[in-house]
Amino acid sequence: GIVRYIGDVGFATGEWVGVEMFEANGMHDGTALGVPYFRCLPGRGIFTQPAQLQTTGTGDSAVVEQLLRQAEASTTAGTLRVDQRVTWSGKHAGTVRYVGPVKFAAGVFVGVELDDAAGRHDGSFLGASYFECEFGKGIFSQASMLKALTTA
Question: Which of 1, 8, 42, 144 has a 20 to 30 A CA-CA distance from 152?
Fold first, then answer.
């Protein structure tokens, strides 16, 4: 595929890479939840975490490789478990409800039920259910955006 977007997205935290796939094995047309990030044919777009990509084949691949590695370096692989208490973005406390792959992007995601209504969903996203919580309290995040809370 071809990298078409690198940056923040509205459906998850952290930096994301939008890729136009050469074959129709993607999930969208570059638009996610009504927000256009890039343009491609329907069913050819995906979003992924930088660590999931390899670059090859063009003179620009070195530049893309550097950007991807910088984004990857800004994330940390955390060991989080279901029912663990965490903070998201340093200010919203919540409970881990899901850890694993999702249909909307490549890589491992953490589903969190926030204590306050700072979330975006109820544990279901783009027609797939990953966990259950009150609407507006669910988020998906990369582990790097979460910090485990210690209990005394």
Answer: 144
